[in-house]
C-alpha cells in the first residue's frame, strides 16, 4: 500500500482476504512502526 495501492487493489489481488483482514494488517503495521527496533548483526 506504500506504493499507492488501495484496499480495493489489495482485495482484487488477493481474493481470499476480506476488508477486515487488510485493515487488521494495517493496524498491526502501525503499531509496529510506533516501536523502535535495534538490528544486531549475527556472526
UniProtKB/TrEMBL annotation:
InterPro entries found in the cross-reference section: DUF433, Homeodomain-like_sf, WH-like_DNA-bd_sf
Top-rank taxon, per record: Bacteria
Pfam families, per the entry: DUF433
Protein name: DUF433 domain-containing protein
Origin species: Deinococcus marmoris
Amino acid at each position: 500500500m506504500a506504493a499507492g495501492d488501495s484496499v480495493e487493489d489489495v482485495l482484487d489481488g488477493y481474493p481470499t482476504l476480506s476488508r477486515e483482514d487488510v485493515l487488521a494488517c494495517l493496524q498491526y503495521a502501525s503499531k509496529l512502526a510506533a516501536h523502535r527496533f535495534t538490528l544486531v548483526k549475527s556472526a
